[in-house]
Amino acid sequence: MSVLVFIEHTEGHVKKASHETMTYAAQLAQQLGTAAEGLVIGQPQEDLPALGKYGVKKIHHVVNDTLSQFDAQVYASVIAQAAEKAGADVVIFSNNAAGKSLAPRVAVRLRAGLVSGAVALPQTEGGKFVVKKAVFSGKAFAEVSITTPKKVISLNVNAFTVQETGDMAEVTQLQVDVPASKVKVTNTTKTSGAVALTEAETVVSAGRGLKGPENWKMVEDLAELLGAGLACSRPVADAHWRPHNEHVGQTGVAIAPNLYIAIGISGAIQHLAGVNRSKTIVVINKDAEAPFFKAADYGIVGDAFEVVPKM
Ligand code: FAD
User: Fold this and answer.
1) Which tens digits make up the pLDDT trace of 68-104?
2) What gap in Å lies between CA 85 and CA 87, rounded to an integer?
3) Ligand 1 binding pocket includes 100 (Cβ within 6 Å)
């Protein structure tokens, strides 16, 4: 039973989420007594053999001009073919935007059982394959048994610690049939700030407590100082104080940074649903009774207009 992991890259660099999935795949492969292999589509600037340090023994590399633009249907076909050619029984994705669109499509093509949002390695004793996943916006866990011969798992971002245990990986070029795309991307506009929210290690976020869009300069300054992504609560985006791509929560982007700093946000359940996988949460609110403090690791009771400039 071999394990194939889809390795994503953006702007020339392999995503941190893929470092996590490679580590996960390597540990799963070890558990199953097999090897983890990676699949890279396109040409990142990084040295592919060096990705072996995350535990993948071999990298299947697919280069084709028509794959330079991400298209979930085309990529799913390519990944499914790669899985067949590599003889993979388990295919691993990150449960991020790309993984959410790819994992189900690949599962259908491979007739595989799928668990999305895994948070731990599967239990495989006695021939079982039971995967723990987060449900109800992370408020509970379910253990799901995959019974099909082929299996697809998407791993929650930040659920697994990256480990550099391997050596150099062998790289082989893989030939696959690339189907024609059914869509044509005519224009792409980069909407987020300097740091993509889903990849950000630190996110600085602000809510209605900021009173108006004119007060975001201090939030932007703090984010820039920390090299952080910028986020906001939904009413802030609804009021057009900030763009909707910054809105985090149940109906916005779900994030899992190492550090989430929430400024003037009450901590409504719908907001928490998108940020409660953050490793450390710092809340700044002038109301000591704000619900967000219950979910916080560190809390500062104070006026944002005094606290943030001091930070
Ligand atoms: P408020 O609730 O108005 O809170 C502002 C906070 O700022 C208060 O706690 C206040 O004490 C504090 N404050 C005020 N002045 C200061 C100051 N000077 N310094 C420090 N603190 C100050 N919301 C989301 O964010 N994301 C979602 O995805 C989302 N999805 C939703 C889906 C549904 C179906 C529904 C019904 C709601 C959803 N909401 C979502 C809205 C959510 O319920 C809350 O209304 C929203 O999160 C509140 O935003 P807020 O905390 O910025 O504003």
Assistant:
1) 889 999 999 999 999 999 999 999 999 998 999 999 9
2) 5
3) no
- Is any ligand 1 atom within 6 A of the Cβ of residue 242? no
Q: Is 282 in the pocket of ligand 1 (CB under 6 A)?
A: no
Per DSSP, the residues of 95-156 read SSHHHHHHHHHHHHHHT-EEEEEE-SPPB-GGG--EEEEEETTTTEEEEEE--SSSEEEEEP
Q: Is the dihedral of CA 86, 91, 96, 98 positive or negative?
A: positive
| pTM listed for this prediction | 0.81
269 CA → ligand 1 middle, Å: 9
pLDDT digits (tens, 9 = 90+) for 156-175: 988 888 999 889 999 999 99
Determine which residue's CA is closest to atom 9 belonging to ligand 1: 266
Question: Hey, whose CA ends up nearest to atom 38 of ligand 1?
Answer: 270
From the CB of 209, is ligand 1 less than 6 Å away? yes
- Among 81, 49, 47, smallest CA distance to 64 is for 81
